Amino acid sequence: MRITAAVLESAGGPFTLQQIDLADPGPDEVLVRVHSVGICATDLEFANFFPTPAVLGHEGSGVVEQVGERVTGVSPGDHVAMSFTSCGDCPLCRGGNPAYCRQFDAVNFSGRRPDGSSALSRDGQQVNGHFLGQSSFASHVVAPARAVVPISKEIDLGVVGPFGCGFGTGAGAVLNVLRPEVGSSLVVFGAGAVGVAAILAARAAGCAVVAAVDVNTGKLDTARLLGATHGVNSTEGDPRELLTAIAPHGFDVAIDTTGREDVLRLAVESLGPLGRCGVVGIGPSEQMSFEWRSVLNGRSITGIIGGSSLPQVFLPKLLDLHAAGNFPVDRLITRFPFTQINEAVAALRSGEVGKAVLTL
Ligand SMILES: [Zn+2]
Ligand SMILES: [Zn+2]
């Protein structure tokens, strides 16, 4: 079928809207008509080196139109969120940890299905897709059934997309991995969509002190409005001193969403004894470094992919939390028509919006 997709022609962009071809779903795949799709920092990062021409996008929501012959559990007409995919066969997938699938990179980041084919093509030439199980910067997606999560038809599809990555990544780091105790202290570095989702989850988990650190005053204001007890602008003084004033004995939990070497070091050093640092950001730095003595007092560092979630279990729970008013992410979202994808990317890059969601 002919679809409209935002095609990345060369590294760095821009995206151009084009008519391209989408093959029918295979036996284990589903065809989804996209309702809306969030733009995540990972799209912008991968746009710099993903093999082109390509279709990115991995925070899609929509309606199932067709399912392959072996697909069970989802039917045409179902509303779905889309998330990352996994092989389903390795010990980590079988153990309920698909975010750490042994084939994770091959099935999410190769641009192709495991057999080397792509569902996307243009003038008979294959176009790279299958990005994080989706490539949802498009009117339609052929996704593996494993990447699709059925949701209630009562939920606004316009907010659902980012639950599949950004919101789920931040909230999952807190609720699935770090699990702070009631009354504990937590600090989040980077108050973008992932960071604010972590802050909201920390409040839902009963943390008494939830500090947000950023360089953008507007983002810190939003974080405080949504539940951060403290906002720290790291350009307005020595961030170490500012954090010590909030948690004199160090934080119980720290989360880095920036992927920046200096910030990662600060995150580890902001912890108290036995404190735990979750690393969730993909950022500009290749390395992290710190004095080895700084982890002797029981501090630990954990990398976390996709909120360590089993999407079919975690996303409905997070959507329930949202429906009950305890995960109010709506205020983070700014909607753009799909035709304004490049404007939305620019607004995201400048920090003018927290989470851009394209509506088809
Ligand atoms: Zn696997
Ligand atoms: Zn993402």
Write up what this structure looks like:
- By secondary structure, the chain is of the alpha/beta class.
- The strands form 3 sheets. Strands 3, 5, 6, 9, 10, 17 and 18 form a 7-stranded mixed sheet that branches. Strands 13-12-11-14-15-16 form a 6-stranded parallel sheet, with helices on both faces. A 5-stranded antiparallel sheet has the order 4-1-2-7-8, with no helix packed on it.
- Strand 1 and strand 2 form a beta hairpin.
- The protein contains 11 helices and 18 strands.
- It binds zinc ion (2 copies).
- One zinc ion binds near residues 58 and 166.
Q: How many E-type strands?
A: 18
Which regions are unreliable across 5 or more consecutive residues at pLDDT < 50? Answer: none
Mean pLDDT: 96
* First-residue to last-residue Cα separation: 17 Å
Outline the biggest β-sheet: 7 strands, mixed
Morphology call:
globular
Helix proportion:
25-40%
Given the structure, what is the number of helices? 11
Could you say which structural class the secondary elements and strand pairing correspond to? alpha/beta
Tell me the Rg in angstroms. 20 Å
Q: List the helices and strands in order.
A: EEEHEEEHHEEEEHHEHEHEHEHEEHEHE
Hetero ligands: zinc ion
Domain Enoyl reductase (ER): 12-358
InterPro entries: ADH-like_C (IPR013149), ADH-like_N (IPR013154), ADH_Zn_CS (IPR002328), ER (IPR020843), GroES-like_sf (IPR011032), NAD(P)-bd_dom_sf (IPR036291)
Cofactor: Zn(2+)
Family: Belongs to the zinc-containing alcohol dehydrogenase family.
